[in-house]
Structures are given as C-alpha cells and as structure tokens.
Write a structure and sequence with these properties.
By secondary structure, the chain is mostly beta strands. It contains two helices and nine strands. The strands form three sheets. Strands 2-3-9-8 form a four-stranded mixed sheet. A three-stranded mixed sheet has the order 1-4-7. Strands 5-6 form a two-stranded antiparallel sheet. It is elongated and about 60 Å long. The two termini are 21 Å apart. Zinc ion binds next to loops.
C-alpha cells in the first residue's frame, strides 16, 4: 500500500537541499525576468534530500515538495493595474508568490540514494530540474 508522506517544504526545511535558499530564490526569481534563456544552457538541478524509513522505502508512495515561486499575475498580466484600478489579485505588484506543491512519486522497494528527477516547466521554471535524492534511514 503506497503511503503519502505529507509535504516537504523547501521554505521550511532549507537545510536539506542545495543550492542555498537565497541562491535558489534568486535563480527562480530571475527565471521570471529572463524569458529568453539561451537554449543551449543546460538545465541545472535543484537538489532535495528526502529521508525515508526502510518501511516507507519498501512500500513506495509519493511526497509533495513545496516549491516557493513567483508567477506573473494572470489577472493583470504583470502590469499591476487593470484599466485605472490597482489589480485586486496582486495588489498592484504584478506578481503572485506562493508555494506550489510538486508531487514526487517513488516506486516500492527503492534503495538508498534513489534519485527522481522532474522538470519544472509546468511551473514556468524552464531551466531547472527538481532532483530528489532519497535516503533510507531508521533515524528520522
Ligand atoms: Zn495583478
């Protein structure tokens, strides 16, 4: 029976991944400013370490990784204004920030150092992979 492990928040468990939180935030933030990334630029990995118990690893399941990101406000297209009115949705900022859960599934019977890599295009992040490294330990 697969088990849901709840949410691993990148904003709260910032000790468990690299690059550092500031570095990551800059990179994601810049990603929204630079819409024309050179195509030849290789994707980089955002590495997250998730520790499972042997039982969880045996059963398999999925975990939500909460990704802090910013998106262009869809109501005002990033302008901050709708006509002469301040945008109600983003309060005139033109951007919306929030945590977006990325669901990472892992099969049953995975071994230590199992890696799951997921592109983040869906979240408007074009040049990053979310790379989850599963560790197995009794000590949680
Ligand atoms: Zn807006």
């Amino acid at each position: 029976m697969p088990t849901g492990l709840g949410t691993a928040s990148l904003t709260r468990s910032f000790h468990s991944y690299r690059p550092s939180f500031d570095e990551l935030f800059d990179r994601i933030f810049n990603n929204f400013r630079q819409t024309s990334q050179p195509k030849s630029k290789p994707r980089e990995n955002l590495n997250v370490v998730i520790t499972l118990t042997p039982d969880q690893a045996f059963r398999g399941g999925q975990i939500n990784v909460a990704l802090l990101t910013e998106l262009t406000c869809p109501s005002c297209s990033g302008q901050g204004w709708i006509g002469v009115y301040e945008c109600w949705r983003c309060n005139g900022n033109g951007i919306l920030s929030g945590e977006y859960p990325v669901i990472i599934s892992f099969p049953s019977g995975i071994s230590d150092n199992h890696v799951v890599r997921k592109p983040l295009d869906y979240y408007e992040i074009k040049n990053l992979y979310l790379t989850v490294h599963f560790r197995i330990s009794e000590m949680l």
